[in-house]
Design goal:
16% strand; metal-binding; YhcC-like; binds iron/sulfur cluster; alpha/beta; TIM Barrel
Length: 334
């Protein structure tokens, strides 16, 4: 495949996900298998994500499995009753690319269907959306964020078909393996739905990323490490990890203000995160280790807003302990 805008040869989708054991991130001086390192190894050049809002809602927002959405999620923009008419997908991609190009030198993009549940519609409605995105001449890959209870087999068949055309990643909002926490966050499903989705998703030729949240109320350090051990051998190709943070207009905002929920301090997060990463296999890509806390409407913890400081603290912790991702990982086959 050739990216028409840049004339750069792109690895064939049949080789995605790649054999990640060939990428020696430790030799590159890294403490974990970071996403930008991974993308550069796979593509040979920078690839930037461009966010697409396809106008979906969520089954725990529209009342199908719950109402109100997740406790921490400001879902007003994708509430079915408040939905604003959205821009055409190709126009969104054009606008997003122009914005990114003002900040970075980049010619290659991954269309990222990001807000809400992006497989929450019949296949006949999903297909034209995804096909339109990959028809954009500067888009060479696709990422789709969704809930694990919204991927019936025909949707996975569609993703498998598209994944044979372009590198494709599906992102599941796992967050935790503990049902007590899923109940707290009003997710409207149980861990069983993740296990079921993974069983039907692995081996279809697309990459699978799981979102993890540390510092959920009531979760002990042991609970979080239990999540890490299960994630390690879950079949996930990649993870995105961040701490629980609060934004305005959410039930969590009220709970934090009332003192019902305490958010993690930086030191605790860094130490827990490094413990977590030590338990993951060295071949699992770590797409993110800090939240993308929005400046406006943000409540806390305040340290989230200084992302470079968080990344420096993570590096310092790895160095202090002389450790790295996977140091404590034990393969089930070992
Ligand atoms: S966190 Fe995800 S599933 Fe929950 S309401 Fe927000 S977009 Fe929907």
């Amino acid at each position: 495949m050739t990216n028409e805008s840049s004339n750069i040869s792109v690895p064939p989708p049949s080789s995605w996900p790649h054999d990640r054991s060939q990428f020696d991130w430790r030799a590159a001086g890294l403490h974990y298998f970071g996403y930008s390192f991974y993308l550069k190894q796979v593509f040979g050049f920078r690839v930037q994500r461009v966010s697409v809002d396809a106008g979906f809602t969520c089954p725990n927002v529209d009342g199908t499995v719950a109402i109100g959405g997740c406790t921490f999620c400001d879902n007003r923009s994708f509430s079915p009753s408040r939905r604003l008419p959205r821009q055409d997908i190709l126009d969104q991609i054009d606008d997003g690319i122009s914005r990114i190009k003002r900040r970075y030198k980049c010619k290659n993009f991954m269309a990222y269907f990001q807000p809400a549940t992006n497989t929450y519609a019949p296949v006949e409605e999903l297909r034209p959306l995804f096909e339109k995105a990959i028809s954009h001449p500067e888009v060479l890959a696709l990422a789709i964020g969704t809930r694990q209870d919204c991927v019936p087999n025909d949707v996975l068949d569609l993703l498998e078909e598209l994944g044979a055309k372009v590198p494709l990643t599906i992102e599941y909002g796992l967050q935790t393996i503990h049902d007590k926490s899923l109940q707290w966050m009003n997710r409207g499903d149980t861990h069983e739905s993740f296990l079921d989705a993974m069983e039907r998703s692995v081996g279809r030729g697309f990459e699978i990323c799981g979102h993890i949240m540390l510092g959920l109320p009531g979760e002990t350090h042991d609970d979080m490490m239990e999540t890490a051990r299960e994630v390690a051998d879950s079949g996930l190709d990649a993870v995105k990890i961040h701490n629980l943070y609060a934004v305005e207009n959410t039930p969590l905002a009220t709970q934090v203000r009332n003192g019902e929920v305490t958010l993690m301090e930086l030191d605790e997060y860094i130490s827990t995160l490094v413990d977590f990463l030590e338990l993951l296999p060295p071949t699992m890509v770590v797409e993110r280790i800090s939240g993308e806390a929005p400046g406006s409407f943000f409540i806390g913890p305040q340290w989230c807003l200084d992302k470079p400081a968080v990344l420096r603290a993570v590096k310092a912790e790895f160095e202090k302990r002389d450790t790295w991702q996977g140091k404590k990982y034990r393969s089930p086959e070992a």
